[in-house]
Write a structure and sequence with these properties.
Layout (H helix, E strand, L loop, with lengths): L1 E7 L3 H12 L4 E4 L14 E3 H6 L13 E5 L7 E4 L5 E3 L2 H15 L2 E3 L3 E6 L2 E6 L2 E12 L6 H5 L8 E10 L8 E5 L10 E5 L3 E8 L8 H11 L13 E8 L8 E2 L2 E3 L15 H21 L10 H5 L3 H11 L4 H11 L2 H12 L8
Parallel strand pairs: 1-2, 1-10, 2-7, 4-12, 10-17
Antiparallel strand pairs: 3-6, 4-5, 8-9, 9-10, 11-14, 11-15, 12-13, 13-14, 16-17
Helix pairs in contact: 1-3, 1-6
The protein binds flavin-adenine dinucleotide (FAD).
Amino acid sequence: MIVDVLVVGAGLAGLHTATLLAQHGHDVLLVERRPTLTGAIRTTGIFVRRTLDDFALPAECLGPPIRRVVLYPPGLRRQVALVSARDEYRVADMAPLYVAAARAAADAGVRIALGTRYAGRRADCFLLAGRDGPTKVRARFVVGADGARSRVARDLALDRNRHLLVGAEEVFRIPVGEEPPTFHCVLEPSLAPGYLAWVVNDGRHAHVGVAGYADRFPDGLRRALERFSASAPGLPGVDRPEQVERRGGPIPVGGVLRRISCADGLLVGDAAGAVSPLTAGGLDPCLRLSELAAAVLDEALRAGHPEALTHYDGAALRARFRGRLMLRRGLAQVRTPAVAAAAFTLLRTPFGRAAASRVLFGDGSFPSP
Ligand SMILES: Cc1cc2nc3c(=O)[nH]c(=O)nc-3n(C[C@H](O)[C@H](O)[C@H](O)COP(=O)(O)OP(=O)(O)OC[C@H]3O[C@@H](n4cnc5c(N)ncnc54)[C@H](O)[C@@H]3O)c2cc1C
């Protein structure tokens, strides 16, 4: 098979990049190892205001707007509630959102091969392992949209994510309650070492999750989620059902990688480390970086040589993440309940509330290249 671009991975980054390239008239093959896009989802699906403003996401896949965030110290007492005057977040129903994105890709002309794994590179061919056995593809460029532990990054000798959190959550339907849609965040290092435990209750679904550094969970990620789930705040009168959807995966928080392109291709989304080091939000970054990726690939394909890919420079983008990388280092240092409680003393001051509001409700997004 011969194509202009082989895109590996049909998460949001791969789907968006593939669609934009096909809309420019290029021949695109998108391969995804999962047999369906509705299984093994790896995200809560919280979209921030800037993303909702700038990208046309299917409205029927979005939950009610969330304006309220409650931050909890260890022990869950004396929490800090912050309420924005604007709609700040919506949690997407990710399974239909991926299906809608795949439909848009197919409509634009992308060929999508599910159940097809990128298995490596040999000479000038890319190797795929699919339902019908192995296939060789010749592509002018390859796009690694294959997540935090990208095989494409390795094969192209590009930078790879080294600084990762791991996260897991349970998702279930809930009855409409009295509480306004709320995002609850718990700073408790034994449940979420170096990050947060969360409950999102938007009045339709509950997402109950924890994330942190894999080697710092006292008795493992799964047990931390069980413990948190047993006492999670923000779900008054809601019983956890027997059957819940489970999600999880690695989250790169080391900032955008420096070398994310070469003459043969480039990386997008988690593969490129395009995740906010502080909030661990990657949905806005993956959409924005995909736009740049599609633009430079379009230029390179039209010009007939890879020169344009040198404009796809992770080091330049990374420089804009200095502040967030510093705050990540701060959050990583919250190792004991005493330090978390001290952080809350600061958070309760007007300065602390203003700083938290700026992080949670600010206008920042992944920097426009
Ligand atoms: C538990 C959790 C909760 C999160 N919640 C949020 C949130 O609420 N908001 C937010 O902004 N961010 C969140 N994030 C981060 C965000 O989900 C990711 O940054 C974003 O989804 C990355 O998209 P992606 O397309 O780059 O990668 P992915 O969605 O991981 O897609 C990569 C795809 O590549 C496929 N693949 C991998 N290897 C191969 C191969 N060899 N061959 C073929 N296919 C392959 C995988 O199956 C996968 O479908 C969360 C992350 C986690 C782990």
